Amino acid sequence: MRFLISGAGVAGLSTAVNLDADGHDVTIVERAEHLGGNAPPIDIRGDALDVADKMGLLGQIRERRIDMTQRVQFIDRDGTVVAELPVDEINDSPDDIEIARDDITNLLRDRLGSSTELRLGESIAELDDGESGVDVRFSSGTVDRYDLVVGADGMHSAVRRLTFGPERLFLHHLGFYTAMARLPGYHPSDRINPMYSFPGHIVGIMSYNKKTLAFFMFRSSWIDYDYHDLAIKKRILADAFAGHHEWRVPELVDAAVQDTHLYFDSESQIKMPGWHNGRVALVGDAAYCASTLSGRGTSLALTGAWFLAKALREHPGDLGQAWEQYERDQRPHVIRHQATAAPGGELLAPATQDEIDTRNRGLAARPADEE
Protein backbone atom coordinates (compact mmCIF):
# COMPACT_ATOMS: atom_id res chain seq x y z
CA MET A 1 0.00 0.00 0.00
CA ARG A 2 1.02 3.60 -0.58
CA PHE A 3 1.06 5.67 2.62
CA LEU A 4 1.45 9.41 3.02
CA ILE A 5 2.54 10.60 6.47
CA SER A 6 2.35 14.28 7.33
CA GLY A 7 4.93 15.22 9.96
CA ALA A 8 8.48 14.04 10.60
CA GLY A 9 8.58 14.16 14.37
CA VAL A 10 8.77 11.07 16.55
CA ALA A 11 5.20 10.03 15.70
CA GLY A 12 5.64 10.37 11.93
CA LEU A 13 9.08 8.79 11.75
CA SER A 14 8.06 5.90 14.03
CA THR A 15 4.97 5.24 11.94
CA ALA A 16 7.09 5.24 8.78
CA VAL A 17 9.65 2.83 10.25
CA ASN A 18 6.92 0.40 11.30
CA LEU A 19 5.01 0.60 8.01
CA ASP A 20 8.19 0.25 5.97
CA ALA A 21 9.06 -2.88 7.94
CA ASP A 22 5.73 -4.35 6.83
CA GLY A 23 6.59 -3.74 3.17
CA HIS A 24 4.55 -0.60 2.49
CA ASP A 25 5.56 2.28 0.23
CA VAL A 26 5.81 5.35 2.49
CA THR A 27 6.20 9.07 1.81
CA ILE A 28 6.75 11.54 4.66
CA VAL A 29 6.23 15.27 4.20
CA GLU A 30 7.47 17.80 6.74
CA ARG A 31 6.55 21.48 6.62
CA ALA A 32 9.87 22.57 8.16
CA GLU A 33 13.07 22.70 6.15
CA HIS A 34 14.90 20.66 8.78
CA LEU A 35 14.26 18.15 11.54
CA GLY A 36 14.49 19.05 15.21
CA GLY A 37 14.55 22.55 16.74
CA ASN A 38 14.36 24.27 20.12
CA ALA A 39 12.75 21.42 21.98
CA PRO A 40 13.71 19.98 25.36
CA PRO A 41 14.83 16.38 25.92
CA ILE A 42 12.08 13.81 25.90
CA ASP A 43 11.28 10.80 28.06
CA ILE A 44 10.54 7.24 27.04
CA ARG A 45 8.50 5.45 29.67
CA GLY A 46 6.55 2.30 30.43
CA ASP A 47 5.17 0.40 27.46
CA ALA A 48 7.01 2.73 25.08
CA LEU A 49 10.25 1.10 26.25
CA ASP A 50 8.88 -2.26 25.10
CA VAL A 51 7.94 -0.73 21.75
CA ALA A 52 11.42 0.74 21.34
CA ASP A 53 12.83 -2.71 22.09
CA LYS A 54 10.60 -4.35 19.47
CA MET A 55 11.73 -1.73 16.96
CA GLY A 56 15.35 -2.62 17.69
CA LEU A 57 16.12 0.84 19.10
CA LEU A 58 16.24 0.38 22.87
CA GLY A 59 19.95 -0.35 23.09
CA GLN A 60 20.88 2.73 21.07
CA ILE A 61 18.45 4.85 23.10
CA ARG A 62 20.04 3.69 26.35
CA GLU A 63 23.50 4.56 24.99
CA ARG A 64 22.31 8.15 24.49
CA ARG A 65 20.65 8.53 27.87
CA ILE A 66 21.07 11.95 29.49
CA ASP A 67 20.32 13.38 32.94
CA MET A 68 19.10 16.91 32.19
CA THR A 69 15.98 16.67 34.38
CA GLN A 70 17.87 15.05 37.27
CA ARG A 71 20.08 18.15 37.40
CA VAL A 72 17.21 20.67 37.69
CA GLN A 73 17.25 22.71 40.88
CA PHE A 74 14.87 25.45 41.98
CA ILE A 75 16.62 28.69 42.90
CA ASP A 76 15.60 32.00 44.48
CA ARG A 77 15.87 35.49 42.97
CA ASP A 78 19.59 35.62 43.79
CA GLY A 79 20.40 32.25 42.24
CA THR A 80 20.70 30.34 45.53
CA VAL A 81 19.50 26.74 45.36
CA VAL A 82 16.39 26.23 47.51
CA ALA A 83 15.04 22.83 46.38
CA GLU A 84 15.61 19.85 44.12
CA LEU A 85 13.22 18.61 41.45
CA PRO A 86 11.59 15.35 42.70
CA VAL A 87 12.54 13.23 39.70
CA ASP A 88 11.41 10.00 41.38
CA GLU A 89 7.88 11.42 41.61
CA ILE A 90 7.88 12.53 37.99
CA ASN A 91 9.11 9.28 36.46
CA ASP A 92 6.95 6.20 36.08
CA SER A 93 9.83 3.92 37.07
CA PRO A 94 13.64 3.87 37.38
CA ASP A 95 13.72 2.37 33.89
CA ASP A 96 12.48 5.60 32.28
CA ILE A 97 14.97 7.06 29.79
CA GLU A 98 15.59 10.72 29.05
CA ILE A 99 17.14 11.40 25.65
CA ALA A 100 17.77 14.47 23.51
CA ARG A 101 15.00 14.94 20.96
CA ASP A 102 17.55 15.30 18.16
CA ASP A 103 19.05 11.93 19.11
CA ILE A 104 15.77 10.00 18.94
CA THR A 105 14.86 11.82 15.72
CA ASN A 106 18.18 10.88 14.12
CA LEU A 107 17.90 7.26 15.28
CA LEU A 108 14.48 6.97 13.68
CA ARG A 109 15.54 8.76 10.51
CA ASP A 110 18.46 6.37 10.12
CA ARG A 111 16.02 3.44 10.33
CA LEU A 112 13.94 4.59 7.37
CA GLY A 113 14.04 1.98 4.64
CA SER A 114 14.70 2.35 0.94
CA SER A 115 10.96 2.37 0.19
CA THR A 116 10.43 5.47 2.34
CA GLU A 117 10.85 8.98 0.96
CA LEU A 118 11.26 12.03 3.23
CA ARG A 119 10.39 15.44 1.76
CA LEU A 120 11.30 18.50 3.79
CA GLY A 121 9.73 21.91 3.15
CA GLU A 122 6.52 20.26 1.92
CA SER A 123 3.04 20.00 3.41
CA ILE A 124 -0.51 18.97 2.59
CA ALA A 125 -2.79 21.71 1.27
CA GLU A 126 -5.90 19.70 0.32
CA LEU A 127 -7.25 16.19 0.89
CA ASP A 128 -9.99 14.42 -1.04
CA ASP A 129 -10.79 11.10 0.60
CA GLY A 130 -12.49 8.76 -1.86
CA GLU A 131 -13.47 5.10 -1.92
CA SER A 132 -10.34 3.97 -3.79
CA GLY A 133 -7.77 6.38 -2.35
CA VAL A 134 -6.93 9.83 -1.04
CA ASP A 135 -6.14 12.54 -3.57
CA VAL A 136 -3.65 15.04 -2.13
CA ARG A 137 -2.59 18.46 -3.31
CA PHE A 138 0.63 19.66 -1.72
CA SER A 139 1.68 23.20 -0.87
CA SER A 140 4.18 22.97 -3.73
CA GLY A 141 1.29 22.49 -6.16
CA THR A 142 1.99 18.83 -6.97
CA VAL A 143 -0.78 16.24 -6.68
CA ASP A 144 -0.75 12.52 -5.96
CA ARG A 145 -2.96 9.68 -4.75
CA TYR A 146 -2.36 7.43 -1.73
CA ASP A 147 -4.11 4.44 -0.26
CA LEU A 148 -3.96 5.85 3.28
CA VAL A 149 -2.93 9.14 4.87
CA VAL A 150 -1.59 9.45 8.43
CA GLY A 151 -1.59 12.82 10.17
CA ALA A 152 1.38 13.01 12.53
CA ASP A 153 1.73 16.77 12.21
CA GLY A 154 1.46 17.84 15.83
CA MET A 155 -0.99 19.69 18.02
CA HIS A 156 -1.83 22.17 15.24
CA SER A 157 -2.36 19.36 12.71
CA ALA A 158 -3.40 20.42 9.22
CA VAL A 159 -4.53 16.87 8.46
CA ARG A 160 -6.86 16.95 11.45
CA ARG A 161 -8.27 20.32 10.38
CA LEU A 162 -8.82 19.20 6.79
CA THR A 163 -10.39 15.87 7.80
CA PHE A 164 -12.10 16.36 11.17
CA GLY A 165 -12.75 20.08 11.51
CA PRO A 166 -11.26 23.19 13.15
CA GLU A 167 -8.75 22.92 15.97
CA ARG A 168 -11.03 24.61 18.50
CA LEU A 169 -13.25 21.49 18.52
CA PHE A 170 -10.49 19.36 20.00
CA LEU A 171 -7.96 21.60 21.75
CA HIS A 172 -8.24 21.94 25.54
CA HIS A 173 -6.07 24.72 26.97
CA LEU A 174 -4.42 23.87 30.31
CA GLY A 175 -3.78 27.45 31.38
CA PHE A 176 -0.04 27.74 30.62
CA TYR A 177 2.28 28.82 27.81
CA THR A 178 5.80 27.48 27.26
CA ALA A 179 8.77 28.83 25.32
CA MET A 180 12.29 27.61 24.61
CA ALA A 181 15.15 29.51 23.00
CA ARG A 182 18.77 28.84 22.19
CA LEU A 183 21.34 30.23 24.60
CA PRO A 184 24.53 30.11 22.51
CA GLY A 185 26.82 32.14 24.78
CA TYR A 186 26.12 30.20 27.98
CA HIS A 187 28.83 27.98 29.43
CA PRO A 188 27.68 26.20 32.61
CA SER A 189 30.11 26.35 35.51
CA ASP A 190 28.56 23.32 37.19
CA ARG A 191 26.02 20.57 36.55
CA ILE A 192 23.04 22.51 37.85
CA ASN A 193 20.12 23.36 35.57
CA PRO A 194 18.67 26.32 37.52
CA MET A 195 14.96 27.19 37.49
CA TYR A 196 13.60 30.37 39.07
CA SER A 197 9.90 30.68 39.97
CA PHE A 198 7.88 33.77 40.72
CA PRO A 199 4.07 33.75 40.97
CA GLY A 200 2.59 32.12 37.90
CA HIS A 201 5.96 31.95 36.10
CA ILE A 202 9.13 29.90 35.84
CA VAL A 203 12.29 30.69 33.86
CA GLY A 204 15.49 28.70 33.72
CA ILE A 205 18.39 27.18 31.86
CA MET A 206 18.52 23.64 30.48
CA SER A 207 21.93 22.25 29.48
CA TYR A 208 22.54 18.79 28.08
CA ASN A 209 25.10 17.31 25.73
CA LYS A 210 26.54 20.47 24.15
CA LYS A 211 23.22 22.29 23.87
CA THR A 212 21.76 24.98 26.12
CA LEU A 213 18.21 26.34 26.07
CA ALA A 214 16.44 29.08 27.96
CA PHE A 215 13.14 27.76 29.29
CA PHE A 216 10.00 29.78 30.09
CA MET A 217 6.53 28.95 31.34
CA PHE A 218 3.75 31.22 32.54
CA ARG A 219 0.11 30.98 33.50
CA SER A 220 -2.42 32.60 31.19
CA SER A 221 -5.90 32.17 29.87
CA TRP A 222 -6.19 31.44 26.16
CA ILE A 223 -4.41 33.97 23.92
CA ASP A 224 -5.77 34.30 20.40
CA TYR A 225 -2.82 34.76 18.03
CA ASP A 226 -1.39 33.38 14.78
CA TYR A 227 0.94 30.59 15.93
CA HIS A 228 2.93 30.96 12.69
CA ASP A 229 3.79 34.60 13.50
CA LEU A 230 7.19 34.61 15.23
CA ALA A 231 7.12 38.33 16.04
CA ILE A 232 3.82 38.02 17.89
CA LYS A 233 5.08 35.05 19.89
CA LYS A 234 8.19 36.98 20.93
CA ARG A 235 6.06 39.95 22.00
CA ILE A 236 3.73 37.78 24.10
CA LEU A 237 6.69 36.16 25.84
CA ALA A 238 8.48 39.46 26.49
CA ASP A 239 5.31 41.01 27.90
CA ALA A 240 4.77 38.03 30.22
CA PHE A 241 8.18 38.52 31.84
CA ALA A 242 8.39 42.33 31.61
CA GLY A 243 9.43 44.22 34.72
CA HIS A 244 11.36 41.31 36.26
CA HIS A 245 15.04 42.04 36.69
CA GLU A 246 15.89 39.43 39.31
CA TRP A 247 18.40 36.62 38.67
CA ARG A 248 19.05 36.35 34.86
CA VAL A 249 15.49 36.98 33.67
CA PRO A 250 16.31 39.94 31.34
CA GLU A 251 19.24 38.05 29.79
CA LEU A 252 17.12 34.98 29.03
CA VAL A 253 14.21 37.01 27.65
CA ASP A 254 16.63 38.87 25.39
CA ALA A 255 18.00 35.56 24.10
CA ALA A 256 14.46 34.45 23.28
CA VAL A 257 13.67 37.68 21.44
CA GLN A 258 16.85 37.29 19.37
CA ASP A 259 16.24 33.62 18.50
CA THR A 260 14.96 33.10 14.95
CA HIS A 261 13.87 29.57 15.91
CA LEU A 262 12.05 30.38 19.15
CA TYR A 263 9.60 27.70 20.27
CA PHE A 264 6.43 29.14 21.79
CA ASP A 265 3.06 27.47 22.25
CA SER A 266 0.22 26.86 24.64
CA GLU A 267 0.20 23.95 27.04
CA SER A 268 -2.84 22.20 25.63
CA GLN A 269 -4.20 18.75 25.01
CA ILE A 270 -6.01 17.28 22.03
CA LYS A 271 -9.05 15.20 22.94
CA MET A 272 -11.02 13.44 20.22
CA PRO A 273 -13.74 10.77 20.25
CA GLY A 274 -12.04 9.01 17.35
CA TRP A 275 -8.76 9.21 15.44
CA HIS A 276 -9.82 7.98 12.00
CA ASN A 277 -12.11 9.11 9.21
CA GLY A 278 -12.30 7.09 6.03
CA ARG A 279 -8.76 6.52 4.75
CA VAL A 280 -7.22 9.08 7.07
CA ALA A 281 -5.94 8.44 10.61
CA LEU A 282 -4.10 10.50 13.19
CA VAL A 283 -1.20 9.53 15.46
CA GLY A 284 0.82 11.34 18.13
CA ASP A 285 0.08 14.92 19.17
CA ALA A 286 -2.27 15.38 16.23
CA ALA A 287 -4.62 12.85 17.80
CA TYR A 288 -3.93 12.90 21.55
CA CYS A 289 -1.42 15.56 22.54
CA ALA A 290 -0.74 15.20 26.26
CA SER A 291 1.28 18.47 26.50
CA THR A 292 4.88 18.91 27.60
CA LEU A 293 3.57 19.18 31.17
CA SER A 294 2.90 15.45 31.11
CA GLY A 295 6.35 14.47 29.84
CA ARG A 296 4.72 11.57 28.03
CA GLY A 297 4.07 12.77 24.48
CA THR A 298 6.96 10.79 23.00
CA SER A 299 5.84 7.63 24.75
CA LEU A 300 2.34 8.09 23.30
CA ALA A 301 3.84 8.69 19.85
CA LEU A 302 5.84 5.46 20.01
CA THR A 303 2.98 3.27 21.27
CA GLY A 304 0.49 4.88 18.88
CA ALA A 305 2.71 4.33 15.85
CA TRP A 306 3.28 0.71 16.88
CA PHE A 307 -0.41 -0.05 17.50
CA LEU A 308 -1.41 1.61 14.23
CA ALA A 309 0.97 -0.50 12.14
CA LYS A 310 0.09 -3.64 14.11
CA ALA A 311 -3.64 -3.15 13.53
CA LEU A 312 -3.15 -2.64 9.80
CA ARG A 313 -0.96 -5.75 9.66
CA GLU A 314 -3.53 -7.89 11.46
CA HIS A 315 -6.51 -6.63 9.43
CA PRO A 316 -5.13 -6.22 5.90
CA GLY A 317 -8.51 -6.48 4.23
CA ASP A 318 -10.66 -4.62 6.73
CA LEU A 319 -9.72 -0.99 7.32
CA GLY A 320 -12.60 -0.42 9.72
CA GLN A 321 -11.46 -3.26 11.97
CA ALA A 322 -7.88 -2.00 11.82
CA TRP A 323 -8.85 1.52 12.90
CA GLU A 324 -11.02 0.16 15.73
CA GLN A 325 -8.20 -2.04 17.03
CA TYR A 326 -5.72 0.85 16.90
CA GLU A 327 -7.99 3.05 18.98
CA ARG A 328 -8.87 0.25 21.39
CA ASP A 329 -5.20 -0.55 22.03
CA GLN A 330 -4.00 3.06 22.33
CA ARG A 331 -6.88 4.73 24.19
CA PRO A 332 -5.96 3.49 27.72
CA HIS A 333 -2.43 4.88 27.32
CA VAL A 334 -3.83 8.26 26.23
CA ILE A 335 -6.23 8.52 29.16
CA ARG A 336 -3.52 7.64 31.68
CA HIS A 337 -0.83 9.92 30.27
CA GLN A 338 -3.03 12.96 29.70
CA ALA A 339 -4.07 12.81 33.36
CA THR A 340 -0.47 13.49 34.46
CA ALA A 341 -0.29 17.02 32.97
CA ALA A 342 -2.10 19.01 35.68
CA PRO A 343 0.34 18.19 38.53
CA GLY A 344 3.24 19.23 36.28
CA GLY A 345 1.97 22.79 35.97
CA GLU A 346 1.37 23.13 39.69
CA LEU A 347 4.88 21.92 40.44
CA LEU A 348 6.71 24.18 38.00
CA ALA A 349 4.70 27.41 38.12
CA PRO A 350 2.70 27.78 41.35
CA ALA A 351 0.20 30.63 41.19
CA THR A 352 1.26 32.51 44.36
CA GLN A 353 4.42 33.16 46.33
CA ASP A 354 2.96 31.25 49.27
CA GLU A 355 2.52 28.23 47.00
CA ILE A 356 6.10 28.58 45.72
CA ASP A 357 7.42 28.76 49.29
CA THR A 358 5.35 25.75 50.31
CA ARG A 359 6.67 23.77 47.34
CA ASN A 360 10.27 24.66 48.13
CA ARG A 361 9.95 23.84 51.84
CA GLY A 362 8.30 20.53 51.06
CA LEU A 363 10.97 19.50 48.56
CA ALA A 364 13.82 20.67 50.79
CA ALA A 365 12.45 18.59 53.68
CA ARG A 366 12.44 15.34 51.72
CA PRO A 367 14.76 12.69 53.20
CA ALA A 368 18.00 12.20 51.30
CA ASP A 369 17.13 8.61 50.39
CA GLU A 370 14.05 9.86 48.55
CA GLU A 371 16.04 12.17 46.28
UniProtKB/TrEMBL annotation:
Residues 4-332 form the FAD-binding domain. InterPro entries: FAD-bd (IPR002938), FAD/NAD-bd_sf (IPR036188), FAD_aromatic-hydroxylase (IPR051704). It comes from the Bacteria. Coiled coil: none annotated. Residues 339-371 are annotated as: Disordered. One of its GO terms (molecular function) is FAD binding. PANTHER family: MONOOXYGENASE, OXIDOREDUCTASE-RELATED. This is FAD-binding domain-containing protein. It comes from Mycolicibacterium vanbaalenii (Mycobacterium vanbaalenii). The lineage of its organism: Bacteria, Bacillati, Actinomycetota, Actinomycetes, Mycobacteriales.
